[in-house]
Design a protein that fits this description.
alpha+beta; 5-stranded antiparallel β-sheet; 8 helices; 12 strands; elongated
């Protein structure tokens, strides 16, 4: 019995020492964040995010994708969406296929939960080959600089706007760190600008084939606007709904951990900087923005997608 009490006393002492260490570390991390300039914190965060193809947007305290990120070399196929839940991403997607100028285009829209972030995306992809395959089975290249289009979107959560983007891009994105959202709570108002009326008309017809009625599409000169609230196209069915709910429960739990751990601060820049000093493991998890793969792993994923598309 004596050894039991000795062991219990040692355990309690170790717990107290760990609690003291954690308090001192949190105090040191808060002081460190407060002494660093905004520019220094942004540079440190951008350096860490660049490995995953993202950057910090100081205008609205969110995360964006880089114009020339490594994902641009990876192209796109439907298999990427099918494999997304394995990377902690649960989203609705809406691919719109259309042809113009001898090329086959795919403009896809996404909204949902990306790991510890709520976000939205618009991606433009081009197929320049001659394979006579259905558009869903093709492997697309990312649009080059000359093929980029003016894009804009407003992301709503329960009817309230939470994110706005507008830029000439090939992959327009925005992610709000620490916010959890079910896909059904999100909607997007999307606008795409085209260089001429012929391409605008081709995209309009692509939207009609996807399932949007004339009353759900607005055309202003060479701009097309539509609202993406529920998908009209068939969603990737690689994983069961039970598995998707499990992923989202994990995402919700990680968002709560993030908010609880960074409670002393309000801005995303300060919160993430605080994590870097105080909770490095949670910091590395957060930086992945739901992506658990490296460029090397995604290259292997690309090869699998190309095989499925009949290119290899």
């Amino acid at each position: 019995m004596r050894y039991f009490y000795i062991g219990l006393a040692v355990f309690v002492l170790l717990c107290l020492l760990f609690w003291l260490f954690l308090c001192l570390r949190r105090r040191w991390a808060r002081k460190k964040v407060c002494t660093l300039s905004t520019k220094a914190k942004a540079c440190k965060l951008n350096k860490a995010l660049s490995v995953f193809g993202f950057c910090y947007n100081g205008c609205d305290d969110t995360i964006d994708s880089d114009m020339y990120c490594w994902q641009r070399r990876m192209g796109y196929c439907r298999f990427y969406d099918e494999a997304a839940p394995a990377m902690n991403m649960v989203f609705d997607c809406e691919p719109v296929y259309f042809n113009y100028g001898g090329k086959r285009y795919l403009l896809e829209v996404w909204k949902g939960q990306y790991g510890c972030t709520t976000g939205a995306e618009i991606g433009l992809y081009v197929y320049r080959g001659s394979a006579c395959l259905p558009p869903q089975e093709l492997f697309y290249e990312c649009a080059n600089d000359e093929e980029r289009l003016p894009m804009r979107f407003v992301l709503y959560r329960d009817g309230e706007p939470i994110l706005r983007r507008s830029c000439i891009h090939w992959w327009l994105t925005g992610f709000i760190v620490g916010m959890f959202s079910e896909c059904s709570r999100l909607s997007m108002v999307v606008g795409i600008g085209f260089p001429n009326r012929q391409m605008c008309r081709a995209f309009y017809e692509g939207l009609r084939r996807t399932g949007y009625g004339p009353s759900q599409i607005r055309v202003e000169q060479t701009w097309v606007y539509f609202t993406f609230d529920r998908p009209r196209s068939r969603q990737p069915g690689f994983y069961s709904s039970r598995y998707l709910r499990k992923i989202n429960r994990r995402n919700r739990r990680n968002c709560r951990r993030y908010c609880r751990a960074t409670r002393p601060f309000r801005s995303t820049l300060d919160r993430i900087s605080y994590l870097a000093f105080c909770f490095p493991v949670l910091y590395r998890t957060l930086l992945r923005i739901g992506v658990k793969c490296t460029p090397g792993k995604l290259r292997r994923c690309r090869r699998r997608g190309e095989r499925r598309s009949g290119r290899l």
